[in-house]
Structure formats: C-alpha cells, structure tokens
Amino acid sequence: MEKIQVTLPGGGDVEIDSGQPIDVLLSSQQNRDDIIAAKVDGLAVDLSRTLNKDCALQWITIDSPEGLDILRHSTAHLMAQAVQSLFPGTQVTIGPTIEDGFYYDFKRAAPFTPEELASIEARMRELAEQDLKITREEIPRNAAIELFRRLGEGYKAAILEEIPEPTVSLYHQGDWVDLCRGPHVPSTGHVRAFKLTGVAGAYWRGDENNEMLQRIYGTSFPSQEALKQHLQLLEEAKRRDHRKLGRELDLFSFHPIAPASPFFHPKGALVYNLLIAYMRSLYERFGYQEVITPQIFDVDLWRRSGHYDHFRESMYFTRVEDREFGVKPMNCPSHTYVYASRKRSYRDLPLRYADFGRLHRYEKSGVTSGLTRVRSFAQDDAHIFCAPEQIDTEIAMLLNMVHEVYRTFQFREIRVDLSTRPEHFMGSAEIWRRAEDALGRCLQNQAVEYRINPGEGAFYGPKIDFSVRDALRREWQLATIQLDFSMPERFELTYVTQSGAEARPVMIHRAILGSIERFMGILIEHTGGVFPLWLAPVQARALPVTERHNPYAQTVVGQINAAGMRAELDGRNEKLSYKIREAQVAKIPYALVIGDREVREQTVSPRRFGGETLKAMVLSEFMDLVRAEAKKDMPLSAA
Ligand SMILES: [Zn+2]
Ligand SMILES: [Zn+2]
C-alpha cells in the first residue's frame, strides 16, 4: 500500500495509507464533534473525501464562518428533502446560503402557507433525528442530466446543461439526491438548531420574464442557544424598523407620487437639520468652507466628468431650450468649477469645500427601502483639493474627524478597509503607490486596524471605507475617503507651485455620515428611536394633571423654548397616566408633570424616558440639567 504524508492543522506530519478518508484522522481530535468538514491544501471538502497524495489539512469547525456556511447549506438540503417528501411533484432549483441563513427555491404553483412551513420544519426534525449519512457521488454530467430528467427535475437538468465540466457531483441523504458541489456536513444529525423564517415569490434565474418560483427562507445555528439569540435580534430589529418608528414618531413618510423620496415631517426635519448643524460645527473647527452649487447641469459637464458614460443609468435627465441637462447625482464635478473660478497657488491649498446639496439617483423600485435606499438625498459631502505632499496631513485630519463623529453617535465597533489599485487605473503607478502608502501610513500612525482589499479601489484612486456595527450587531458602510487623480485631470485643474511651475492638485472625496437620509434610518434603528438628548426633536413634554394646570404648563413650555431648547404641551383633557404612557411611546426624554403643587411652588416634576422620576425642581434647575445632559452626549464642538 502506498503511503502519503499529511501535514496536520497544528503542524506535524502523519503518514497514512493512500486512499483513506479524511475522517480516519479525526479520532485524535479533541473537538471532533464540532468538526464538520476539512480543507485539503486550502480547498474545502467533505470529511468522507479520500486522500491520495501528500497534502496539508485544516479542520473546519461548525462555529467558524466557513463551517456555518456549510451547516446552513446542508440545512437547505434537509429542507428540500423534507419539502419533496411532503409535497411530491415539487421541483427543486437552487438553495444557496445568504447572510444569516439560506433559502431554497421550489417550483410549485401555490405559495407555501405558514401551516405548511410548520410541517416542513417537523419533517426536517425527523430527518435530522434519523442522522442520515450524507454521501458524495461523482458521475458523468450526461448521466446526471438523464437522472434528473427521469426524476422530473427539469430545472436541475437545465442547470446541468450549462455546467462545462464532464463530471459532476451528487449528494445523497437517505433516498433523496441533489446536484451540488458541496461540501456538506457528514450526516443530517449535525443539523441541530434551525428555523424557517419566511416565504417569498422569486423568478427563475432572477428574471421577471421567467416563471415564478416559491422561495423558503431559513436559518441554522450550531446550537439552540445561538439560534434563540439570533431570533431575538430579528424580533428586536422588527421593533426598531426605522420605517415603522418613522411613522410612529411622526418623523417622515413616503408617497407613490414621489417614489423612494422621503417627505420629512417637522420632527424629522428637525433631526435632519440637527445632524447637518452638527457637521457644520465640525467644519468650522476642521477648516471647511461650505459651497452651494446648481442642481441641474448641461450634459457637457457629465460627459467631461465621465458620469454620462459610466453613471447614466442612475441619472435623471431633462430638456430645456433644446439643451439636454442632467440632474446631479454627485457634487464632485461642480466643485471643480468653484476651484477653477480663479487662479490657484500653493498658498491657497488645501481647499476644503463642503456641500449639503440635494442629489438624485435613480434606483430600481425593487431595491429601494425606507430611508436606507432612496432616490433623493443629501450627503455631508466634501471635496478637498490639495497638493500631493499634503495628502498625509489631510488623511490624518479626516481620520480624527471620522472617529469623533462615530464616537458622538456611540458606534463603538468600526471596520476600516483600504482598497488599492485595480487592474484598470488612471494616473501613474508611482502616484498610486505614494497615495496607497500615505493612506496605509496614516492608518498605522493612528493605530487604526484595517484590512487591505487588493485591486478594489476605484479606477481614479485608492480609498478607505468605514463600516460601523449598530446596537443589533449589523454592519453598515458609512464613511468613505477617496483619493482622485482623474477628475483634476479631466477638468484641467492647476495650481502654481512655490517654484512658479503649474501642477495638478489631488482631489479627495469624502463623506462621514454618507447620505443623511440613510444615516438617519440607521441611527433610528441603532437607538431604537430614543435619540440622544441633543438630537431629540422634542426634549420635554409638559403634562398638566387637569386643564386648570394648562396656563402654568404653557408658561413652562414657553420658557424652555425661549431658552433654545425644545418643549411641547400635552394640554388634552385626558388622564395623567394616559398622557405619561403616550410620552413614553413618543420616546420623549423628559415628561414634566404639572399639578397643584407644581403650580403653587412654581416647579416641575420631571420623569425621565424609561420611568425614573426626579424630585420636583424649579424650572431653571431643570433647564440646567437638560443643558448639561445634552452637552455631555454632544461633542464639544457643537455645544
Ligand atoms: Zn448542496
Ligand atoms: Zn465626490
């Protein structure tokens, strides 16, 4: 028998007979119950795969990202097996994993009902208990096509017809078979904690001209506890859905008259403007100047900027006096006109232009969603024009600014990605190298951990992207800092250097909140609608116990507002308990109860959101408290 050398995960080699399956090496592993697959020379395979040559082995455990993916895909198989055993004649198509779960698309006429989902789950549990062995079989592609045709699985046969390889792999569990690359868990018993989470219609191959399929979504975890935690997060996400809270808190609405374009109501507009005011306060400190630029430009501008060729599908156009105009999807090109409005010298640089201009981008109806994906929005957008040797200091300053902003909103986990030169790029390789070095150096100098995405930069320059995790542990990409060597070239921007020569400035595009609409949606879900005091549209609501307390309550509200804070009166003839509850539902930071004693002593009795009751205090004391608290949450610069 021929011997082969296998390098084990912890290092160290073993010699085994060639042709043995990987799982013979499992017995010596302490955590062998958690190992569901392996990597042979970096390639993920089933534990039943045989080893035929010298190789390096890694284990894949069920709780690793790859293991979880294999578990979830195996759960999709289990679900398909259950569906076909319960509903004969239902055809299988594809069943990939997605973030946090999986789906499988089936061909059958009627959608699955909630009762049917429950019975599918029950059947899955039975099949998991039977701990059916999952085995891989390789057969010629043509034989597989015949097999699936015979089984009445037209979709699988169609998929197979497009596979170029002469040999394909099938996976069997019990009497059920599916076409699949694998790998899979060794047996159905490894699928322990799962839940079918929903159904939806989906077109075959995502094309609306094709027939409609029935999709079932599900998720799967290594343990019941992990599953339970995940389902709780989903519930909480539903409660915090910004579309729901936006309605309940009267912040914004949508109407088909302007699809995917939010209408901000007075309270929503207040929050929106406070976010802008906050960014403006940073601009003062960080040396930005605000500009206001047109909304609609002759398409010549978009031709020159490259948007007409590359971004046209996402733009709105109009004709006036026989000229074609495009509505701006970005501010960048227009800022070059402000720059070029006069001759620039090295002494003028850097120039930092900020613009809260309204932008429009066409997004397909199918992908728009609440505030997080809209067609009309504004960004905390800015463009910095600087000399190449100023890149370092500008980036360092931007990193400070980004971190300050995220601290303010209590985003504590931030991921940073540096994307470098792609295959097709603009400018010289030397400038790229220097710019990438500068970005990396700035990140290192500030001890910011980052990942490098090789080749993922834009064609016009490298970039740094920032993603934050919200309170529900979901990741959102927010800030971006992009160096651009292309636009100054296209718009022939120059400055006079110290030695009197003409040089090209570098343009840095950057946004920290990103789209303010989207940021507000994320912030509503991050805070559950309980805004920090400085951002709360109503900071205090006066609740007179009876109508005869209204006049004093009105005075209280008037004084708070006159002092630059935000209060309102609930003067309705309702029970106090009802008004307190309503103030809670509206997530108002302070409810001020006003009864006989408060009127007599000229005080207020504040109740914090969440129920804590403070002692009665004179109004000036309450206002000091609000000021102090707002200042504590709010950065110094905006105080
Ligand atoms: Zn599979
Ligand atoms: Zn830009």
Low-pLDDT segments: none
Q: What is the number of E strands? A: 36
Heterogens: zinc ion
Q: Output the number of helix runs.
A: 18
Tell me the overall shape.
Answer: globular
The biggest sheet amounts to: 9 strands, mixed
What do these coordinates show?
It is globular, with a radius of gyration of 31 Å. With 639 residues, it is of the alpha+beta class. Helices cover 34% and strands 28% of the residues. The N and C termini lie far apart (79 Å). The strands form 9 sheets. Strands 18, 22, 23, 24, 25, 26, 27, 28 and 31 form a 9-stranded mixed beta sheet that branches. The chain has a 5-stranded mixed beta sheet with strand order 2-1-7-4-5. The structure holds zinc ion (2 copies).
Question: Top keywords for this entry?
Answer:
639 residues; alpha+beta; nine-stranded mixed β-sheet; five-stranded mixed β-sheet; 18 helices; 36 strands; 28% strand; binds zinc ion
Sum this structure up briefly.
This protein has about 650 residues and is α+β, with helices and mostly antiparallel strands. The protein is built from 18 helices and 36 strands. About 35% of the residues lie in helices and about 30% in strands.
List the helices and strands and how they pair.
Elements: E1 3-7, E2 13-17, E3 20-21, E4 35-40, E5 43-45, E6 50-51, E7 55-61, H1 65-86, E8 91-92, E9 97-98, E10 101-107, H2 114-129, E11 134-140, H3 141-150, H4 154-161, E12 167-173, E13 176-179, E14 193-203, E15 212-221, H5 224-240, H6 242-248, E16 252-253, E17 263-264, H7 266-286, E18 289-290, E19 296-298, H8 299-305, H9 307-310, E20 317-320, E21 323-327, H10 332-339, E22 351-355, E23 358-360, E24 376-386, H11 391-408, E25 414-419, H12 429-445, E26 451-453, E27 463-469, E28 475-484, H13 487-490, E29 495-496, E30 502-503, E31 506-515, H14 516-527, E32 540-544, H15 550-562, E33 567-569, H16 576-585, E34 590-594, H17 596-601, E35 603-608, E36 617-618, H18 619-633
Parallel strand pairs: 1-7, 18-22, 25-26, 32-33, 32-34
Antiparallel strand pairs: 1-2, 3-6, 4-5, 4-7, 8-10, 9-10, 10-15, 11-12, 12-13, 14-15, 16-17, 19-21, 20-21, 22-24, 23-24, 24-31, 25-27, 27-28, 28-31, 29-30, 34-35, 35-36
The structure holds zinc ion (2 copies).
One zinc ion is lined by residues 73, 77, 171, 178, 180, 182, 184.
